[in-house]
Design goal:
The protein is an alpha/beta fold and 266 residues long. The protein contains 7 helices and 10 strands. Strand 4 and strand 5 form a beta hairpin. Helix 3 runs parallel beside helix 5 and helix 5 packs parallel to helix 6. Bound molecules: adenosine-5'-diphosphate (ADP) and magnesium ion (MG). Magnesium ion binds next to helix 1.
């Protein structure tokens, strides 16, 4: 069972658990400060939704956690299972079980979904014999009710929004991370794509894995019920709460919600 109490900032965290704790994180991109003191905790077994207006720094946060070298951390810590991971490379973080779905905006000719996944699995989990890999891929696709033929398609070559999301969920299912970060950009999130991601996460969620779903699109949360909701604004988490916070946001909109938050002294 997920404990629905939001832990006060500064409380101790069981360092053995698959918990991510972000403390006072400041990040520059291209010399400009984009994250300006993010405090956030993503807990084992819980689904967290990170919401925020466009440009608030959601993707910057996701990429910083994953270890993208373009993002320059100037202050703060990112603790994974109690250890600061900021000095680790993206590959090393992936090997520790941190997953950020790779967004590939362009087609990659000659690389099938299956080949791409084999490389990703080898990179993160270690080499697997081809027969074993194919068996695992077939079983996983079967579980996810995906057509076998999808694995032979070239990555993103004419993929619909829904197919891109299918590739993302399949990647998640094959890598079995302990922390899954899904940055659902608005483009390509049609109803079909939203359902695929939501069904996939609902199917794959487990007590070992924390999930952070990033979206600008409140309607997404009609398909998935987060345990915790966080609002990012101008590079800071200005409000955290339970699912009712997303409902409230849907009702009043960002402007009103942010005004309320200011009025409450944040
Ligand atoms: N590569 C970059 N160079 C300069 N500024 C960037 C870059 N990427 C993002 N930004 C800026 O950082 C801010 C936050 O961007 P982003 O993290 O993508 O926000 P969100 O995902 O919440 O829409 C925006 O103002 C954006 O213009
Ligand atoms: Mg973004």
């Amino acid at each position: 069972m997920v404990d629905t109490q939001v832990r006060p900032v500064g409380a101790t965290v069981d360092s053995g658990a698959n918990t991510l704790v972000i403390e006072d994180l400041h990040v520059n991109v291209g010399g400009k400060e984009i994250l300006r003191g993010v405090d956030l905790e993503v807990r084992q077994g819980a689904i967290h939704a990170l919401l925020g207006p466009n440009g608030s720094g959601k993707s910057t946060l996701a990429n910083t956690i994953a270890g993208h070298p373009k993002y320059e951390v100037t202050r703060g810590r990112v603790l994974w299972r109690g250890e600061n991971i900021l000095e680790l490379s993206a590959d090393e973080r992936a090997k520790l079980g941190i997953f950020l779905a790779f967004q590939y905006p362009t087609a990659i000719p000659g690389v099938s979904v299956a080949n791409f996944l084999r490389l990703a699995v080898r990179n993160v989990l270690g080499a697997v014999p081809a027969i074993e890999f194919r068996r695992r891929l077939r079983a996983t696709m079967n579980d996810l009710k995906m057509d076998d033929k999808f694995a032979t398609r070239y990555l993103n070559d004419g993929f619909s929004g829904g197919e891109k999301k299918r590739a993302e969920i399949l990647q998640l299912a094959m890598l079995k991370p302990k922390l899954a970060i899904l940055d659902e950009t608005d483009s390509g999130l049609d109803i079909d794509a939203m359902r695929i991601v939501a069904d996939g996460v609902n199917r794959l969620k487990n007590p070992e894995m924390g999930v952070m779903i990033i979206t600008h699109y409140n309607r997404f949360l009609n398909y998935i019920r987060p345990d915790f909701v966080h609002i990012l604004h101008e590079g800071r988490v200005v409000r955290s709460g339970g699912p009712e916070l997303a409902e409230h946001l849907e009702g009043v909109g960002y402007d009103t919600l942010l005004k309320e938050t200011e009025a409450n002294g944040r």
